[in-house]
Amino acid sequence: MVNRKELDPEKSPSARFGQRLRTLRDERGWTQDELAERMGCSGTHISAVETGRRSPTPHFAASADRVFGTGDRLARQSRAARHTALIEGFPEYVAHEARAAEIRLYEVGVIPGLLQTPEYAATLEADAVRREAITPEQADERVELVANRQTTLVRSPSPLILAVLDEGCIRRPMGNRSVMDAQLARLLEFAERPNTVLQVAPFSMGARRPFSLPVTVLTMPDRSLMSYAESAHRGHLERESTFVLPILTAYHQLQAEALSQAASVAMIEQVRKGIS
Are residues 155 and 200 in the same domain? Predict the structure, then answer.
């Protein structure tokens, strides 16, 4: 096959559906256009679903079940793909994060996922369920993803992880005292790792803070750069170095203005004493 894109079923529920669709199509020896003709859509549509770029609609999944004779199996799988708790663009970012040689992140308001304890993550998602922003099942998916992403911290070779947290991240209470105490202890453990740097951007930085929203910059093993940022409903992964380099420069400026790791650890320890 020419330019056949490899699929990663762990990337997202949409990717798992796409892989299943391709497998069923390959077993029958059909091209994308031949399957599209049987389903009453276009080959381009089949390609987009197979590669996870488009989530399967109920009609599409039902049509695929009819063509392949799979009962309602694809229809049930498509519901998971459509109802995923992860915003568009984030699964793709996570796949790159797991391979990155260096991870630079800045977070505002909450502890970032790579540094969260399970209890902190569960408390955060429980509130989203209370607000009916997500379902309990989606909350479980998000908490599970936090644990999966943290394998990044222990893989070999270890990535260099530089984290700058806005002061609000460590001062914003999340759950009861034991949850926050354990979370702050996790931050202190993170700072002790040989492949990490932890800094706090204090409130006193004021307007000198170059970012108003969270941002992440990845350096890949081939030294190429990517940046990732989110809006309320969508994540954007930028690969063009022309746009990533200014973000990296601003990140270096942020680090220069933020507290040193020693001063940051001292602040976290002080906050931790205040909640115990």
Answer: yes
